[in-house]
Design brief:
The complex is a heterodimer. Chain A is mainly alpha-helical. Chain A is about 65% helix and about 10% strand. Chain A has one domain (about 20-185). In chain A, strands 1-2 form a two-stranded antiparallel ribbon. The longest helix of chain A is centred in the middle third of the chain and has 32 residues, at about 110-140. Chain B is mainly α. Chain B has one domain. Chain B has 4 helices and 2 strands, in the order αββααα. Classes of the chains: A mainly alpha, B mainly alpha. The interface of A and B includes residues 79, 133, 135 and 139 of A.
């Protein structure tokens, strides 16, 4: 009788173990964060405005000078584009890892690497955001103490598009923060 | 094992104290930077309150200083370390954003921006520029220490077995 009970126990333990439940919420959030960072990068990278100014008039023909406002003129915006580009590539890679994930074996350092990379891209996106915010504030209001003129009254749509890229980047940072907290939470050992 | 646990505790406390000192000195160095100069016929005074980016730097670093001071007194076994991990993450983000913003404005002040007709101001107020550079360097050191502390507190929350005495 005892041997038969032991056999029954053996059979129940050799059954197929439960597959880990896939977490679709974090994949959905990563897709949203990827869209937000990619749109911030694209809107700022394609930000260009050309304006023609009449400088002098010789006789009846006006001499016009065309001035272009590009994002490459300011190192802060270059950093913003690079930071958001890296963050969007990271989100894309993490979506791939999450969808194809359960096929690979998670041992050793790999489960810790995902929250660390998430934190790094969060910090990078936040840095790019801070620089671009204050640079665009300087462009909008100027600085009377340093005799820096504001440029937003001449290049209105350049400033507005930069502002839209900034808003997308703020949304991306909030999403990245939630994703980071969730992926750190995943590391907890199950009781 | 007990000596290792004690060494870890001392190391952690030392790191927190260093972070507190670094943010405090960043605040002090940035707040005491002002210089008067005369450019052409104007009397120019350069202070940190001229730019919102430097004001943000001072405010962010002082908030983190107060937090760093309060967390020195948290007993190592309490349950509040989960909250400390979360606030560490938020304050690291705050620090990095403030340093990046101040660095962007300081770069414009040093090199100017020829496309927007913004002239560099560091030639007229070199002492102010040097002091701002010093404050930014100290702020960067504080940021690195806070990133290490963030990894430490997340590790402490998720795997507390190592931190208990054997």
């Amino acid at each position: 009788m005892a041997s038969r009970n032991v056999e029954k126990l053996d059979l129940s333990f050799s059954a197929v173990p439960d597959k880990p439940k896939k977490d679709w919420v974090i994949v959905y959030l990563r897709i949203l964060a990827f869209l937000a960072t990619a749109s911030a990068t694209l809107v700022m990278a394609l930000n260009k405005q050309t304006k023609h100014f009449v400088v002098a008039t010789i006789g009846t023909t006006p001499i016009t000078v065309s001035i272009t406002a590009k994002f490459q003129h300011t190192p802060a915006f270059i950093f913003f584009v690079i930071a958001n580009g890296v963050a969007s590539l990271h989100c894309l890679m993490m979506i791939g890892v999450d969808i194809l994930g359960p096929q690979f074996d998670y041992k050793g350092l790999k489960p810790v690497l995902i929250p660390i990379l998430d934190m790094m891209s969060l910090v990078l996106a936040s840095a790019g955001d801070g620089a671009a915010t204050f640079m665009s504030e300087l462009g909008r209001n100027g600085n009377s103490h340093a005799r820096w003129d504001k440029i937003c009254d001449k290049f209105g749509s350049y400033c507005n598009r930069g502002g839209a890229a900034l808003i997308a980047s703020f949304i991306a940072i909030i999403l990245l923060l939630i994703i980071t907290v969730m992926s750190i939470n995943k590391l907890k050992p199950k009781k | 094992m007990e000596s290792i646990a004690k060494a870890r505790k001392i190391c952690h406390l030392l790191l927190r104290f260093l972070a507190f000192g670094a943010t405090l000195s960043a605040v002090i160095v940035m707040a005491t930077s002002h210089e008067k100069a005369s450019v052409l016929v104007f009397q120019v005074e350069a202070k940190y309150t001229n730019t919102p980016a430097f004001k943000y730097f001072v405010i962010a670093n002082s908030v983190v200083t107060v937090y760093g001071f309060l967390i020195l007194f948290l007993p190592p076994e309490s349950l509040l370390w989960r909250l400390a991990a979360a606030t560490d993450l938020v304050f690291t983000m705050l620090l990095v954003s403030s340093i990046s913003a101040a660095l962007a404005i300081a770069q414009v002040g040093k090199k100017g921006n020829s496309h927007a007709a913004w002239l560099p101001i560091c030639n007229s107020v070199p002492k102010f520029c040097n002091q701002v550079t010093g404050a930014l360097v100290v702020g960067a050191i504080a940021l690195i220490i806070y990133m290490l502390l963030l990894l430490n507190s997340i590790h402490r929350v998720l795997d507390p077995v190592i931190f208990r005495k054997c």
